[in-house]
Amino acid sequence: MFILNSHQIAAADQATINSNNISSIDLMEHAAKQCFNWLHNQLQNQNIKIHVFCGIGNNGGDGLVIARYLYENGYNITCYIVNFSEKRTKEFLVNYNRLKEIGKWPTIINSENDFPEVAFEDIVIDTIFGNGLTRSPEGFTKELINYLNSIKAFTLAIDLPSGLFTDTSVIDKETVLKASHVLTFQTPKLAFLLPENSDFFETWEVLDIGLDSNFIKSLNPTLNYTIKSEILQLYKPRKKWSHKGTFGHALIIGGSFGKIGAVTLATKAALKIGSGLVSAYLPKCGYPVLQIAVPEAMVEVDNDTSLEYFNFKTNATVIGIGPGMGTVEKTANGFERFIKENKLPLVIDADAINLLSQNKSLLNFLPKNTVLTPHPKELERLIGTWKNDFERLEKTTDFSKKHDLIMVIKGAHTVIIDSTSKYFNSTGNPALATAGSGDVLTGIITGLIAQGYEPINAAIFGVYLHGKTADIAISETSYETFTASSILKYLPNALLDLFNKDDNLIENNKSDI
Ligand SMILES: NC(=O)C1=CN([C@@H]2O[C@H](COP(=O)(O)OP(=O)(O)OC[C@H]3O[C@@H](n4cnc5c(N)ncnc54)[C@H](O)[C@@H]3O)[C@@H](O)[C@H]2O)[C@@H](O)CC1
Ligand SMILES: [K+]
Q: Where along the chain is AMP bound (predicted)?
């Protein structure tokens, strides 16, 4: 699904109002009613004190609507106006009057002296700022945010945690009201997907408020959050008359003495995801290990303990290179010769990325749409440092454009970047932060390309399945006991789950890595 930036969201709001004959008041009513329904469903009329803090814009307008429903349903609520400006919006004023009409006058907060008593057991609803935030909150609004943060009550943020910008970095961490849960409208926000914002919310989910989908498409958004229904469309069903040659030949190159496991895991993964044939090319010392661990694979060997010659005979469809390879000089020299001669599609990971970082001129020899799978440290060696996560995305996009590469930045929300788009993954959890997890991912992506998936789709699909194994496994195992081999074990479940229509959750309930 698309991720819209703040301008696109405002435009989509307006286009929906113009095209669907729905007034902005009704759109707000509909959106805020969904928030009330969510809360009502959780609370089931329990007598918990609820504090609704409204700004003076349309996020505040949402708060006034939610407050009205809470009053009408008998909840123990107080509604406040955080009076940081006199510039009220029309929608705010209409809903302010509607609240007065039912005899409920909000309490105005003009300064620190007006801050109410809020207890840890209470619920805070945050509708101070939403998508309209243009600068960091200051003055008593900032003080209020700090005061509420110090109480640590359950805080439900509407659309965005107040003080969090949709598309730019937070400058002062003291200006964001930390949310326990965020109900956000229509599209995930880029800010929710970046590690630098992990302190500002625990979980979030998207409420579909019916914005004009044709208009949204016409904006050609470049940011995506890939969900199950989209992944299913990438899947290539197998035809009856196919044979193993139909599904390509993946070659995994890597390994060094002490790191034969990495190339073994990648080889197993390429096989398990369905590559018709799989070969491994590794130092001689790893030969028996690989043959025993993966009897289905063919093996060719190089020098004794680390790769040097890269003179394999395998006629591969695609090569995955790097796991456990090491960066000693003879390997670096052999790698350079290999890259300069190679014409096959590549997936490049781990030490192979480090060797590219040491010798950046080799980037010019990579075939178009080569997939690189760096974790943040490897990325930094490749593209240099960044000021914040937003800049990291932009620098990676520039790098991807310059060299025609597909970049897979691994992390809590792995993001796949090509010259035009960014695809954030929606699966996975901290169980995946385990040795060998990346080697398995390399094998999966390589195995998918072998089967004819376009490299960009192989990266998106592979990353999704890799994450899904951990999501499925976690109900039976635990974060700690999940290993890279567990990814392989649960890969069939992850694939089968694509055809299970029960859920298509657009939410994120994971804890932070
Ligand atoms: N019809 C619509 O447009 C809909 C809008 N909705 C809500 O509307 C929100 C956006 O509303 P607005 O655009 O009115 O903006 P906000 O309510 O997010 O912000 C209020 C106003 O505060 C001002 N402001 C920004 N930063 C400030 C700061 N640091 N200190 C003081 N003032 C500051 C801005 O001028 C902004 O207009 C969304 O987040 C969503 O909650 C929803 O009701 C859905 C429908
Ligand atoms: K908010």
A: 410-414, 438
Question: Which own/partner pairs from 433-436 qualify as long-range (CB within 8 Å, at least 24 positions apart)?
Answer: 433/513, 434/482, 434/483, 434/484, 435/483, 435/484, 436/261, 436/262, 436/265, 436/483, 436/484, 436/485
What's the pLDDT tens digit per position in 176-203?
999 999 999 999 999 999 999 999 999 9
**Ligand 1 pocket member 163 (CB < 6 A):** no
Distance from the Cα of residue 60 to its chain's centroid: 28
Using one digit for the tens of pLDDT, what is the confidence trace for 84-136? 999 999 999 999 999 999 999 999 999 999 999 999 999 999 999 999 999 99
What ipTM score was computed for the predicted complex, to two decimals?
Answer: 0.97
Sketch out the chain's domains with CATH numbers.
Answer: 6-221 (3.40.50.10260), 247-498 (3.40.1190.20)
The residue contributing the CA closest to ligand 1 atom 21 is: 57
CA of 28 to the centre of ligand 1 (A): 12
Is 202 a pocket residue for ligand 1 (Cβ < 6 Å)?
A: no
21 assigned ligand-binding residue: no
Instruction: Give CA–CA dist 326/48, Å, rounded.
Output: 59
Note if the pTM is more than 0.90: yes
What single-letter amino acid sits at 335? F
Pairing mode, if any, of strands 179-185 and 154-158? parallel
